[in-house]
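seq as requested:
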Amino acid sequence: MKIALGLEYDGAAFSGWQRQSHARTVQASLEDALSRVANHSVVTWCAGRTDAGVHALGQVVHFETEAVRTLRSWVLGTNANLPREVAVRWAVEVAPDFNARFSATARAYRYLIFNQPTRLALWAHHATWELRPLDAPRMHLAAQALVGEHDFSSFRAAGCQAHHPVRTVHQINISREGSQVVLVVRANAFLQHMVRNFTGALLAIGRGERPVEWMGELLAARDRTQAGVTAPPEGLYLTRVDYPAHFGIPPPDSDFSHP
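struct tokens:
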């Protein structure tokens, strides 16, 4: 039997998704909890491996099991054995050909920035703080250069293990809601640090340090050394993963999960 799960987690509590021998990770916590429910060792695969400090509201994982449990038992039993920073939202049985990563048609991330004179307290690990005024319409205009299929080498981490740097960005929007500046981006897939590198460059444009045209110039350069700083991880959320309808994966049920 193959089961898919919807997962949310507070990335501030973990050293990223992927299991590590000497660090607390989301994958290790989830697999340990699932193994208790299944009474056998469970291995999971996720839609997108998030870095240390990055959060998820719409992560999707799958695993295989010989254990016979109700879907309700997979949700409640796993949650009972998870740390409080991780929660399973739903479980569905999926077809044998489903793969949380390779069956996905698109993924969406949201990056949250508080643009105000004083630093954050309650949001310190869940948003980025920017003291200097940001021009959100200017950032939005610059970001449109990223839409489409491109070589995103300028926005790829040095240690990225992807086989090639070409990705298709379907949509990218930057808007202001009071003191919050919110970036939402949807693409077929993402390179390591891709959204954080987008954000780092867009912050420079929003502060007026770089022209709007700089984003297109960076994209054309295909050179990471020209693209500026990587934005911090705490403002980044994996909000949704899309799949073909026949797999029966539930859509995100929160407004914050929708681009």
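The mean pLDDT is 94.
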